[in-house]
Amino acid sequence: MDLASMDYDFNSTKQQFLSHQRPPPTARPSVLIAITLVVLVLVKKVLANKRAQRKIVDTYGCPIRELPMDTRVMKFAMSQQISEQGKAVAGDAPFMIRNGRSRELVLTKPDHIRSFYKGDMKHHPKPPYLNMGEYFKRILGHAVGAISGERWSMIRRYFDPEFSFHVARQSGDQFKSIIAQWVKDLPRYGVPVGRGFKLEVQGPCRFLPFQLVSQHIYGQVFSEKLFDDLLSLNTLHEVILFDVILNTRLTSKIWNWFDRSATRRMNEFNSKWKKFNMDIVNTARRENLNCPAERIFSGVDKNEMKVEEFLHTLDEILFANVDVSSALLNTLFQHLAANPTIQQNLREEIALYKSQDPNDQSQYMSKTDTLLNFVVMEGMRFSPAFAFSLPECTSTAKEIGGYHIPANTPVVIDAKRLNGDPDSWGKDSDEFRPERFHELPISKTRCQFMRFGVGAASGRCLGKNVADLIFKLTLMTVLEQFSLHAVEDNPEIEFRPLEA
Ligand code: HEM
Fold it and tell me: How many domains does the chain fold into?
């Protein structure tokens, strides 16, 4: 068979077909013009976006400084180095970092933060899936912390009431009994020393907030068996998060398809997570149990919240943010062990408040001018939730730190540098000195202190009331029973039982 002639035949058939399809001669130029216009508009938009991204200059036309490497992984694993390199290349000015294909502006000073939030705090969009890519999207991409605008407000409408100060306080008695048991079990993790023991608190601190927040969110449905199931889900979740951060190929859709084992893990987690939570909601309904997660699910019943938004936000609450609280508990114990005077003063304050009202410490918990509150705040100054905050974008063009920043530029905050800046906190900024908050009202620290957010978003953390309660109750319970002592050249802490 003559392949060339076949080809010829085919082409002629195609030509005949096309000639039948041809539009009337008058319509042709207008279709072409329309297509050309659409293409031109698209190209212009892409170029404008690229130009806007590329050209950030100050008032003299000097371009902003930029770190030369991809900081996507380093932001999590080597945050201190990025912070130091940023300071070395840009001094006190903002600078740019690269996160895969996107670029992010890093803010380091209270003035930058003031300018960033000025006038439009509520309208800062988040970059798609926080610039973390496809694999992240599948596990946390629809969580409240990853989105903005109307969907953010709608999700918060269902979650906020369950995390209010009042509702957090109702979990107080259950928290106290879990914490009491945790303190009782502490010696098991340590090595006996005299009448006490010594241990690295990081280990036992790891799962206490996890257990307390699970208790809070699942209410009367929560049980030891459920907690065991959560712990095994956490093991799988850790592997997936590891991939989210370190396996940069999984940021692309195509690689997600090719990497079958990563996809399998993700599918397994997502289906187990859904079943775990749906079983809880159904049990609460069937047995008429008090369960915040069930009440939040009414948003899905009403078709306002997507199941994905419900599940991803629960994931963010339990697996992502609770780690932050464990790190902070560890920081608090380390600093108290190294500062016997602060520890003793705090113990005396606790005893005083307890003697005033032995059965109800909720007043004490809610007071902001106590040493207990100052200690927790100073802990957060040293141990912010993220070394670099999650990105959110400028909504309009702005001037920040002398640079013209185009609209829609992703922005992150170097929280460690901000919280330790001697210009804001004084020469003793690297000293653990809770009393500084006595001299410096919290209202004055809004833009210099990354705590539960910063600037106009300073209280945005959904879990702030629950987290605050966890830290305060845990410190009270431990300090009433033990004095803490730093072990020289060792991360361990010695726990000595107090005389009755
Ligand atoms: C009980 C533990 C905690 C839970 C359940 C929790 C939950 C959350 C959630 C869901 C968000 C996303 C909020 C949103 O964008 O709408 C968030 C944001 C945040 N949380 Fe927490 N959190 C906890 C503990 C903490 C602690 C201890 C800190 C500080 C050391 C902290 C600092 C932050 C910060 C800085 C943000 C980002 C706020 C922003 O986007 O401006 N969180 N938290």
Answer: 1
